[in-house]
Design brief:
This protein is an alpha+beta fold and 399 residues long. Helix content is 63%, strand content 6%. It is built from 19 helices and four strands. It has a four-stranded mixed β-sheet with strand order 1-2-4-3, sandwiched between helices.
């Protein structure tokens, strides 16, 4: 499949973009409405243009027609109106880079270093396509994707901001860069110049074999399976690998993005959608815990409803398999184990059978040793009580 236009290939927001927007709309409606009301006034736009002119060299179309022709081709291939004013600037700085200053209805693109001299025409087309893809994304759905980015940026910078906002902003930025890489490939009609330009910008090397780098990226991808820890741009090998999967229309792309840009649920690294997801999974885990038993006393139920006021026993059950290492990290499983102990201690009349149920589930979670530690530390079990509990649990498992 060799798409060359937005219409053929579909430059559409990634699932994570949509998940974040849905979350903000549903759970932060007032903030969402406030951000939607923010506008860029004419005075602010003029101030921006003045600042750009003061600190850069404007690459005039009459003086540099070949560069503007490349930009116009990228705009055309990404489905942008070529009548929209476009201005190119060269900024100071030795490091090769490019960026887009977003203004609705205007394209302001800044290049830095000797990018114009070091890239081939196709690679420059890829860089322009990448930056213009940011414009495409931020212009969709009346600016909703830019709105989400601004909310996350502002929330992350606020004093005492929750870590979940910073983590969401980080992951949102990673997905945005992969989206823009797809725009680079569309502009060129091939992923190769997009990949070679990425490598050049990140290493400074003058010649790049895109096919060779794709083999290198696949080799690294096979050896390292963890999620990206990058702050704003995924590692280059990940970007190359993602672009290859996207261009080929591979069904592996969705699971790959989940693994590489988000990873398993991590209790100390939850983003906003992850928090909501873990809440739902916890509710389902509690439903599984009590399924087929008579252990849900009114006292225990009241304890659960302190966390989830509308919880009911007939919620869709979530089994321990959903918290396997490939889906959730160990602190998540330890959190569930501590939750089971809290429920067991909530009702002295039900403590023994609930503790036995907790032991059975802890075995499935592979957290039985952690439960034993909690019993000693939180429930005051001595060696005699713990040994007795272990014997009871062994009988329960054998029954």
């Amino acid at each position: 499949m060799n798409p060359t236009t937005q219409e053929l290939r579909g430059l559409t927001p990634l699932d994570y973009h949509l998940a974040v927007i849905d979350h903000l709309r549903a759970h932060e409606p007032e903030v969402w409405r406030w951000a939607a009301a923010r506008t860029s006034h004419a005075e602010q736009r003029e101030s921006l243009r003045t600042a750009l002119l003061r600190n850069t060299y404007r690459i005039d179309q009459a003086a540099h027609p070949e560069i503007h022709a490349t930009l116009d081709l990228a705009r055309q291939r990404l489905g942008l109106n070529v009548e929209v004013p476009a201005t190119l600037y060269q900024s100071a700085g030795a490091e090769m880079n490019a960026s887009l200053v977003f203004v609705p209805g205007e394209v302001h693109l800044i290049v830095q270093g000797d990018l114009l001299a070091r890239l081939s025409e196709q690679e420059l087309l890829a860089v322009f396509g990448h930056e213009l893809a940011h414009y495409v994304l931020w212009s969709q759905e009346e600016g909703a994707f830019l709105q989400a980015e601004r909310i996350l940026s502002d929330a992350s910078a606020a004093p005492g901001a929750a870590a979940s906002f910073s983590e969401t902003w980080r992951r949102y930025a990673l997905h945005t860069e992969l989206f823009a890489d797809c725009g680079a490939a569309i502009a060129c009609g091939s992923p190769d110049p997009a990949i070679s330009s990425l490598v050049k910008l990140n290493t400074g090397i003058r010649q790049v074999d895109a096919a060779a780098y794709l083999r290198q990226a696949a080799e690294v991808d096979a050896q390292q399976t963890g999620a990206s820890e990058a702050a704003s741009h995924p590692e280059v090998f990940m970007r190359a690998r993602a672009l290859q999967l996207w261009w080929e229309g591979s069904e592996e792309l969705g699971p790959w993005l989940q693994q590489r840009l988000q990873g398993p649920l991590a209790l100390r690294g939850l983003d906003l959608p992850g928090q909501h997801r873990l809440q739902g999974m916890t509710r389902g885990f509690l439903a599984h815990f009590f399924a087929g038993t008579e252990l849900l006393s009114e006292t225990v139920k009241a304890q659960i409803q302190l966390m989830f006021p509308d919880w009911h026993q007939n919620e869709p059950a979530v089994t321990p398999q959903a918290f396997a290492p490939e889906h959730a990290d160990e602190p998540v499983r330890h959190y569930l184990t501590a939750l089971m102990l809290d429920l067991a201690l909530a009702d002295p009349d039900q403590q023994e059978p609930v503790l036995l149920r907790a032991g059975v589930i802890a075995q499935a979670l592979a957290t039985l040793d952690h439960l034993h530690q909690l019993l000693k530390r939180e429930a005051g079990f001595g060696k005699r009580e713990l040994d007795r509990y272990k014997r009871q649990l062994a009988k329960e498992a054998a029954a």
